[in-house]
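Before relying on records like the one below, remember that each one covers exactly one chain. Contacts with other chains, cofactors or solvent are not represented anywhere in the record.
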Amino acid sequence: MARNHHSKTVTAKMKFSELAAQWILSVSHGIKESTLAHYHYTLERYLLPVFGGDSLSALNEQRLEQGILQVISAANGSHKPLGTSSSRECLTMLRRICKYAAHLHLMRSMEIFVKLPRMEAKQTKPFSAQEQTALRDFVLAAPTPRKVGLLLQMQLGLRIGEVCGLQWGDFDFKSGILTVQRTVSRIYCGTGCTKIVVQTPKTKSSGREIPIPHDLAALLRKLRGNASPDTWFLSGSTERPVEPRCYRKSIRGYLRRAGVRRVHPHALRHTFATTCLQSGCD
């Protein structure tokens, strides 16, 4: 009886921040470093400022629902109001933490229901045939690996992190195949610090072999020169890749100089997907 009373006392005193730390430790095995870093960022940036100091005994459906609405609306002014995607991430994480606590009998099972913001109808239009021609002409006028990276996104469908993760050894000019096997990203590592990580692509299906068009393969072969297989494609160095943030800046400059719309670099990959659909590709 005394032991049961002690357990209830410990649970009553336990803070949400302690529970969250325990939960994130429980899910940290078997997930990518970038995913774990994103979990930490979401917790520290959004959930802990609102719920961190709450004791578990004080949490009920009303508090959880009001709190997550504070997170979404940025009531404390620490960030901008969240869009649909970020709101859903925060709500999902809060639900997972509460489910974990209920599993450990630290608190009762609770359902959290809130209305998420409506998704804004934002859709970047793919580049038109004229814009694609203008981009290709710009690249071919004075080709460099960074410029050719535009074609790898627009013609082969690579993500920007995947282009940053390419090494010359990934290009097999004999078979005409490009192997996508790594991606570069900058991740959050706590207390406002970030770092660059190189890891396997976004999903299992993202690691893939892609046929290289003959004209693009010929251009790449000339650009390679005597570069070793472990030389990073964009940076020309064996030591450090170019990170996506820096490459996005380069891409914006290239789009401006090519005389096409200044859009998010993802429009290049979106153009590839649209072209595939129009031509009947899978």
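The beta strands are 171-172, 177-180, 183-188, 194-199, 208-211.
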